[in-house]
Design goal:
143 residues; mainly alpha; two-stranded parallel sheet
C-alpha cells in the first residue's frame, strides 16, 4: 500500500471520490486541498518530508482497516440509508417514466409543428408559416 494522493475538492467525480476515501480514513485535513494554491502547498509539504511519508506508508494499512471505511457495522447502515434516500427520490420524482415521457411528448410536439411548417412553406405563403415557426421556436427554447 502506497501513500494517499493529494486531491482537489470538487470539480469532478474522481476528486470527490478521493475526498470521500481520504475523509473516511481520517486524512482529509492533510491530503485534500480547498483550492489550487493549497494543492501546490500540500504537494510541496509532503514531497519535502520523506520520513513522514515513510511513516504514513507503514501505518496506512492499519489506519484504513480501523477506519469507518472498513467498519461494516457503521458503513452498511450508512450505505442502506443512502440507497433508501435515492429510492425515495426516484419514487417521488416519478422514476424513469417521467423524464422519458416528457422527452417523447416534446419530440412529438416538435414533429407535429415541423409538419405544419412544411405544409405551409409553399411558394408565396411565407406569412402562413410564421405562426408554426414561432411555436417550434418556443418548444425548442423550453427544452
Amino acid at each position: 500500500m502506497g501513500v494517499p494522493v493529494i486531491t482537489l475538492r470538487g470539480g469532478c467525480h474522481a476528486h470527490n471520490v478521493s475526498c470521500s476515501l481520504l475523509s473516511a480514513v481520517g486524512l482529509a485535513d492533510q491530503w485534500v486541498a480547498r483550492d489550487q494554491e493549497q494543492y501546490v502547498q500540500l504537494a510541496v509539504q509532503h514531497a519535502s518530508n520523506i520520513p513522514a511519508l515513510q511513516q504514513l506508508r507503514q501505518q496506512l494499512r492499519q489506519q484504513m482497516a480501523t477506519s469507518q471505511l472498513c467498519d461494516a457495522k457503521i458503513f452498511v447502515p450508512q450505505l442502506e440509508d443512502t440507497y433508501s434516500s435515492l429510492w425515495q427520490r426516484w419514487v417521488t420524482e416519478g422514476g424513469r417514466k417521467r423524464p422519458i415521457q416528457g422527452l417523447l411528448q416534446q419530440q412529438q410536439e416538435q414533429q407535429r409543428i415541423g409538419q405544419q411548417v412544411q405544409q405551409q412553406q409553399q411558394p408565396g405563403s411565407a406569412c402562413h408559416a410564421e405562426q408554426p415557426m414561432q411555436q417550434a421556436l418556443q418548444v425548442h427554447a423550453a427544452a
